[in-house]
Design a protein that fits this description.
Keywords (chains A, B): FAD, Flavoprotein
Number of domains of chain A: 3
CATH topology of the largest domain in chain A: Vanillyl-alcohol Oxidase, Chain A, domain 3
Oligomer: homodimer
Shape of chain A: globular
GO molecular function (chains A, B): alkylglycerone-phosphate synthase activity; FAD binding
Strand content of chain A: 15-25%
Protein name (chains A, B): FAD linked oxidase, C-terminal domain protein
Pfam family, one (chains A, B): FAD-oxidase_C
Helix content of chain A: 40-55%
Largest sheet of chain A: 7 strands, antiparallel
Largest interface: A-B, 96 and 96 residues
Family (chains A, B): Belongs to the FAD-binding oxidoreductase/transferase type 4 family.
Number of helices of chain A: 15
Structural class of chain A: alpha+beta
Number of strands of chain A: 14
CATH architecture of the largest domain in chain A: 3-Layer(aba) Sandwich
Chain lengths: ~400, ~400
Amino acid sequence: MNSFLSLDEGSHLATFQAGIYGPKLEKSLNDKGFTLGHFPQSFEYSTLGGWIAARSAGQQSNRYGKIEEILTSLKLITPTGTVETLREPASSTGPELNRIFAGSEGLFGIITEATIKVHRLPETRKYFGIVFPSFSIGVDFIREVNHREIPTSMIRLSDKNETRLYKTLGSLGKKETPVRWVKNQIQNRILQWKSLGDNKCVILLGLDGTKEDVSQNFSKIKPIIRKHQGLYAGTRLGEQWIHSRYNMPFLRNHLMENGIGVDTMETSTTYDRVLRLHQEGIASLEKSIPGSIAMCHISHSYHEGACLYYTIIFPMDEKKPADQWFKMKRIISETFFQNGAPISHHHGVGFDHKTWYERATSKPALFGLRAFKKEIDKKEILNPGKVFY
Amino acid sequence: MNSFLSLDEGSHLATFQAGIYGPKLEKSLNDKGFTLGHFPQSFEYSTLGGWIAARSAGQQSNRYGKIEEILTSLKLITPTGTVETLREPASSTGPELNRIFAGSEGLFGIITEATIKVHRLPETRKYFGIVFPSFSIGVDFIREVNHREIPTSMIRLSDKNETRLYKTLGSLGKKETPVRWVKNQIQNRILQWKSLGDNKCVILLGLDGTKEDVSQNFSKIKPIIRKHQGLYAGTRLGEQWIHSRYNMPFLRNHLMENGIGVDTMETSTTYDRVLRLHQEGIASLEKSIPGSIAMCHISHSYHEGACLYYTIIFPMDEKKPADQWFKMKRIISETFFQNGAPISHHHGVGFDHKTWYERATSKPALFGLRAFKKEIDKKEILNPGKVFY
């Protein structure tokens, strides 16, 4: 269930069994001069089938697309038979089956095979930092780059809290551990942070492609940086990020073993609502757990809006950690819901998000999905109690 | 039901009532400096709701996307209540509802409102012709432009028969009518065409964008033209095409009134199968009606493949025109089906394509869609007998 079945070099399509993990899949393609370009933070421990089932996004999805856009056809085993979708670039034949099974999180069947779009390994890449005076100005920059249709692989904008965290983590001395630093931050946050008055925000921007394209795109981005009072901060930050991009979950585990809770949650919204949702999300999180620090970055951006990715760091309630977490989760989910923003941009629904997903989904559509499920899985054996069932 | 409801300039999104026709919609946006960029051949007589219901493609969809990609959210009235999808750039919340209702062809409800992505009117455009030695080489050119990731608005490759038709139509004297020309062609086709040995094929390529982008993209395309032995044929062809792009259906009506049948059908396939499907499609059509002329063009192209759009011109059987048409339709549809190609790329399914759509769709998915329909439209009043129901 984890084999590389075929590569169609002419059509830039590859077919894999869906149980293949990220590193093996990517290496199989690299060996032939191709890349999938799909790098979720869980890359090392997640599979192609899992990505499709949960509508995953990767860190370079600005360039390569979310997994549902990368998907060309799939094979799915259901209790009532096998589903195979056509290997077609586009069609106008009824509802789009790939988009029904992508995101189905196991409720309709098990994805066993998929044909996905691949790309030639880019000739070069340039990842660099830019410092902006504020989050709001950073958002304006992102919007302009997207509307100017400059192809980027990644534009990641950290808000002021996240910018400070990364800055401090990057400058930690050998004697200071991340745990000690975070504890210190939590204790002193009101005194220290609120008085600094420093709203600076960092963007990490990535370009991949031919040398010609990367150079031309960088030239188009430079005047937009200047227009928005940005300061080009060189490529060292970008290289550091590439080097450590899968490490964050490990840091989280380390902190949690030391009594410091960490969680993340993400949504998306259109540009007109990004700033309000950013502020309300941060406020909701910090209100939900006294003494917590909340921060946010824009991880993906589009023609019409962006993904807001929040992190909360908090002193764990050692007696009732579950109650503490559920309260926080409820409050931030309610904030997303009240803003008309989806309960997830790329983490999926599962059980934790089910309540808000169902509330946000119009009844006829919800009942229709359940009827689809019931028809395909008559004995209701597939992942019961999740998403919408 | 045909109002322009709002424009969100910051998010480049516009909201319309779905009954609005193409010209009014496009003009409303143009007046504000924007464009939808969606120009199906039926533009003047089709509506936004119809485009979404049938997963329409426009002539510049290479640049702006098919309508399901342009769609951000919609409102749909169903017998069991109203459905509204979230105004979100992206999410990972279950099956993608927009992609269930796009392509539903009225089976689930009536689309009454939609929010769609709009673009600033491009600063400039450059549409030009290129002549290639053969269809096969033209396909290689298209593939390379797509894999080189050069943004184009349109790449339309006519095969040798279509190239000859357009060439002749373009050079008609005032005394010669299209009807006389086509009749003549049909009578003399074996003698004339088969002996010419001229395989030349024309590509019409369109670029839209800023002056800088159009100029850079043209520079990237030039060496690819040379590599594939293409001959740059200037912009006159492009201007002619823009001027007359909605006229083809009128020519068809004119021919049919004169006993000459014309029909079109389209599908899509991956690059590895384009040439075989092109040949088999032409052969099927010409075999299905003795004395007919079949031709084809690539109307849309993608990372992994392209849309093949066929035209057949034939002497109408005045006694049994329906029998003649059904036979032809059956034979070409069977050819698409046997090649694993969808029964339509942008015309939709309706009644004519239902048989082949159902055969190409795996049973569990087909039954699931019917269950979805039955749940949402319990009395089965919406467009019965179409698509999959």
